[in-house]
Amino acid sequence: GQSQDKEDILSADIIFGSPEALLSSEWKDKLNDLNITVIVIDEFHLIATWGQNDKDSKLAFRRWFGEIGELRTICPGACVLALSATCTQKAKKRVMKVVTFKADHVSIFISPDKRNIKYIVKRVTNNTEMSMTWVVDGLLELGKLFPKILIYCKSISVVANIFDYITDEVSEKLHSCVPMYHSETEDAIKETILTSISDPQDKIRIIISTNALGMGVDFKNLSNVILFGPPNSMLDVVQELGRAGRNGERAVAILMYKSHHLSQCDEEVKVLYQTPECRRISMMKPFLGDNDLEQLKLDIGDHTCCDICQQKCTCKNCALLTLEKLLTGQDFSSYQYDEVLSDTSDEMSDEIIDDNKSYFKL
Asked: Are the CB atoms for 244 and 222 separated by under 8 Å?
């Protein structure tokens, strides 16, 4: 019964809860009976992005994130540990105000810059299908050896559009390589996709998704991300691009956009997509202080940084990853074929070559 539930809660060492639950009248009463010593806020940047009304006066997505500072009133003796892997300087100031951090608080900062990810911006036509022909061509050429990629889209309708186009253009044998992931996707399919992300030998090659696929997912074996349409804020850009390269290996993130896509974006995002200067510098400006930015400028500048830096690179050995070669329409030689094949088990390789021999241009 309810009395037993309350007794269980009162005897717990750690309590997990959403802001909506913890700030409800029922939970406030329970928290008052507890000796709370530490309040941990994970992904604290969501206080600024989900808990605040936006610039167009739209209501907050989840307003209780913006009220989470009330926990300090309920538990006045508790210290607060707030964690985030991606928080802009502006968002940090808002969060500190909401959570009422004291002036003598301790702040530990590590740059969110991932030097192993290369950033490429590609403006495309208003025809979504034409924009994705290079992906289809690559899948037809490499079949199940196509490098695993995650394509983020801004809406379920765009996800469905790209999914329909790709599956219409390839053999039915390859349909299982191209799933969709969004809020309406069946749970069983979601579980299959989540398992495939951490397994480089899994048959799934292209995951087309909204940002429903993200928080709490282990992306350790994903090296290729495409943003089809820019997120509205730089914080979301860095979050989505950061799903690539978590194993420390070289990775590539391609930011594709149509001319009208930028109209609803923050100014920082517009600059990133349109700048003639280093993309990494533009991306990190909202996150880093002046000294860190100056140091970053000294550390970057070759073909592994971004498409702008690649144009200026003088190393004369600009090796590209498979997805970059597909984007630029380069022919595949035997060593490039082996590059993809090396990530696949011998047993799966034999099966793949047999199943897809009609798709390889060997």
From this structure: yes
DSSP 38-85: EEEESSTTHHHHTSS--TT-PPPTTGGGGGTTHHHHHSTT-EEEE--S
Q: Tell me the mean pLDDT in the region 260-283.
A: 95
Tokens of 31: 């928290």
- d(Cα 86, Cα 80) in Å, to the nearest integer? 18
210: number of Cβ within 10 Å = 20
What distance in Å separates the CA atoms of residue 329 and residue 326, rounded to the nearest whole number? 5
Residue 326 in contact with residue 139, Cβ under 8 Å?
A: no
Angle at 202 between CA 196 and CA 207, to 5 degrees: 50
Q: Where in the chain are all domains bearing CATH 3.40.50.300?
A: 117-355
Task: Tell me the pTM.
Answer: 0.81
- What are 10-52's pLDDT values in tens digits? 788 888 888 888 888 888 877 877 888 998 988 888 887 776 6
CA 190 – CA 105 distance, rounded (Å): 40
Asked if residue 258 lies in contact with residue 125, where contact means CB atoms within 8 angstroms, the answer is yes
State which H helix or E strand residue 114 sits in: none
Fold of 117-355: Rossmann fold (3.40.50)
Kindly state the tokens that stand for 39: 């309040």
Question: Rg (Cα) of the chain, in Å, rounded?
Answer: 23
